[in-house]
Design brief:
Elements (H helix, E strand, L loop, with lengths): L2 E2 L6 E3 L16 H5 L11 H18 L8 H21 L10 H5 L1 H16 L29 E3 L2 E8 L4 E12 L2 E7 L13 H17 L4 E7 L3 E4 L3 H17 L5 E3 H4 L16 H6 L18 E11 L2 E8 L4 E7 L13 E5 L2 E2 L4 E2 L2 E2 L4 E3 L16 E5 L2
Parallel strand pairs: 1-18, 6-7, 12-17
Antiparallel strand pairs: 2-9, 3-4, 4-5, 5-6, 7-8, 10-11, 10-13, 11-12, 13-18, 14-17, 15-16
Helix pairs in contact: 2-3, 2-5, 3-5, 6-7
Amino acid sequence: MTRNLPQLLKSIRVPRSFSPSQLFDLRNCALRVLAKRAERYLPPPPSALHGILLHHVREQMLLGRWGNKDSPEEAFDWILEQASFRLDELLAGEDKTKYMVPLRNTIGRRKWNQKTFESKLWAISSGLESCGQDPGLLEIERTNDGVEYNGENNTCEEGAEALVKSRSLRISGRADLIEKLNHNRLRITDFKSGKFIDSHGNPLPRYKLQLGLYALVAEKVYPGRSIELRLDGARRLRVLWDRSLREFCSKALEEASQTYPAGTVMEANALATPGSWCVGCGLRPRCQNYLNTVPAWWSNSGDRPRPLPIDVWGEVLETKIYDGATVLEMQDDGGRLIRIKGISMERDLTRLDVGKRVYFFDLKPTESLSSHGRRIHPLNFHDIPPDGGLVHSRATGLQIFMGES
């Protein structure tokens, strides 16, 4: 069933602490980073859910929670199977994610196998051992990642999913792995299932900042200790913790703290900056700047931000039933005539009156997103793939909202 467009987000209270994994994104859109407690009406992208799944498997491997499995390879397969089943259960229990089940099919065989194979190679070569405990349950929401906290001013735990927080620095998060190598050396590792290096093989600035923020807290807890930083994914890369990186991280943190004082109530429109980074943001239906700005960017002429979320909204021109599904023609708010095919009958859009406003978020394009070497925003979309899934995939994360006529 469709719902009315949710109430626009008017203001937010700036959280007391920043998440190391998200601080870099403040320069793109502060609202996305700071609105931690605002309800998101769009589901996480399938790729993000896949990352959470593989992250959980690595965590359980690091903790030695293999049960009675004899080898890392056998343990990896077992933990992945259990966690995949658990994740599909969680997704099936929510209306906005139920069409993503099974996630393996939503991701696609090639991407699923590639990322899984990379993680499995890591597990096989890791030299880990089992502690005999069974794996813990996977949860979609990670805790202590930039949330409010109480207690000691500075904390830097050891082990997997190590809590790292500092009241004075306004940092709160969890590092994937912190190891005490000896009495004067500490190693902080962050695992990545996606791209984390540039075309020259250098670590991307956002991940250098993330690791550096962990290191700033570690220096407070372990003064004088040598700190080694590492990114670990399809390849392993050391990140040098030197004066340059320390200054870069300290400056970014100082600017964030001065610009966004803890506890301050700020207007959402003053924080929201639409752009290509809106892809994957769950606040889009509630973000007035996004809803007002982006339709002018849908045109495929001129210099428009790309990529954009595969969203569209406007006024209904015609609805009809074809091959057991709804076909809808609209004039979108960018002035274009667009068509959406294969809308499942479960969406209940068969009786929409002409002139009714409808908002579609996370559709699938029925046409190529590239034309003459340029990225485009499509005119033709679908829910259920018109070719039965041979080339196109279903819009598993599609959310539809009704607006005022």
